[in-house]
Amino acid sequence: xxxxxxxxxxxxxxxxxxxxxxxxxxxxxxxxxxxxxxxxxxxxxxxxxxxxxxxxxxxxxxxxxxxxxxxxxxxxxxxxxxxxxxxxxxxxxxxxxxxxxxxxxxxxxxxxxxxxxxxxxxxxxxxxxxxxxxxx
Length: 136
Known about the structure:
Elements (H helix, E strand, L loop, with lengths): L1 E3 L1 H11 L3 E3 L3 H5 L2 E2 L3 E2 L3 E2 L2 E2 L3 H8 L6 E4 L4 H12 L5 E4 L5 E2 L8 E2 L8 E2 L5 H9 L1
Parallel strand pairs: 1-8, 2-4, 2-7, 7-8
Antiparallel strand pairs: 3-11, 5-6, 9-10
């Protein structure tokens, strides 16, 4: 699994039209997300979303270069591993996610998408819209 910072993720989205899959819950996604992100949550309630891989397979071939992000980068790293086990060959975790990781007593913070002032919104392709698209 590769990992990039938010500024690089934004460049990849802009210059290479890479899809950004936001794996947070629909409620988190609704609070704000990278502009152009698509919401496909890795977890639903207290467990893994059983449809996560199937939905991605229906939207993108396994060789599609995908960016995966979440709140701080932990869930999206797990989602990358799930997709790699499912045969995806080009998945990249967005370190720091939308909110970022605060610096601790020894430093090491990672700025989030929002803190960097990168394009974000509260509109976007919600999980419900993704499911509706696949139902058509």
